[in-house]
Design goal:
It is built from seven helices and seven strands, in the order αααβββββαβααβα. By secondary structure, the chain is an alpha/beta fold.
């Protein structure tokens, strides 16, 4: 009953207006990986780090690669530093700072990075996936830290880079000493509170076709790459049909998507 009372107290301390303001402010940061135009997760990661420091946390801010940092904050109730005992319960709250491109912004009803509130919803690129989830993790850490709740374990919050690409952020994280201590994880993705037991993998395959220039009146002296490319696309379409024989009950069919 003690914990139930303390947890109810945490919920009562939630400032919804402040939480929404945090989500909107964070969502206005364009954290698309687009180095040619000067965009990356860096500004978003710095924002997360500054908020954690503002809330009284020490942070570990480090670069996985150029302009692509991970940010880690901890809330320790049981001291396990320099200990060989990794059986101390440690819960990870995980999220990512990058978002997918907004595409053609003229097709949006609002500026995709304005975090506009309409009809009780926050509209913007990355609000759902997953700026709001990451902010909720950060805010939960703050609420617990500011409360009189005493846990029998520790909390780690990880704001990782590059979830939308090759996932270099989490690949780096799972090889760190943090991962060795984690016993449970809440991934703050928008999964409607469903427990995920399957996941589609991904393979990025690049095909390069080298042609040979020729005069338009003598096409047979050259090599037109359009034809072999068309053959490849046709075979991809056939393979997509064959892949339907391997349907997952939860995830549907595997697929090939030429771009």
């Amino acid at each position: 009953m003690k914990y139930e009372s303390q947890i109810n107290s945490l919920f009562n301390n939630i400032d919804e207006d402040y939480l929404i303001d945090l989500i909107c402010e964070f969502s206005r940061i364009k954290s698309v990986w687009d180095p040619k135009n000067g965009f990356s997760e860096l500004e978003a990661a710095l924002w997360i780090e500054n908020k954690f420091k503002e809330f009284g946390f020490e942070t570990d801010f480090y670069y996985v690669t150029d302009k692509r940092p991970n940010v880690i904050a901890e809330l320790n109730y049981v001291n396990n530093l320099n200990s060989e005992n990794f059986n101390i319960p440690t819960l990870l709250l995980e999220g990512h700072t990058d978002v997918v491109t907004e595409g053609d912004s003229s097709l949006w009803s609002v500026d995709p990075f304005s975090a506009t509130i309409k009809n009780g919803r926050i509209i913007g690129r990355g609000v759902n996936d997953m700026k709001s989830g990451l902010i909720c993790a950060l805010y939960a850490m703050k609420l617990i830290k500011d409360s009189d709740l005493e846990l029998n374990g520790n909390l780690i919050c990880a704001a990782l880079c590059d979830e939308e690409g090759e996932m270099i952020g989490v690949k780096d994280f799972v090889q760190s000493e943090y991962a060795e201590r984690i016993s449970s994880v809440i991934v703050c993705e928008p999964e409607a509170n469903n427990i995920c037991i399957e996941q589609k993998g991904v393979a990025w395959i690049s095909i390069k076709i080298i042609g040979k220039m020729s005069h338009g009146a003598m096409p047979y002296s050259g090599l037109n790459t359009s034809y072999p490319l068309a053959n490849i696309l046709t075979e991809c379409e056939k393979l997509n049909e064959q892949l339907k024989e391997h349907k997952s009950i939860l995830l549907g069919y595997p697929s090939i998507t030429p771009t």
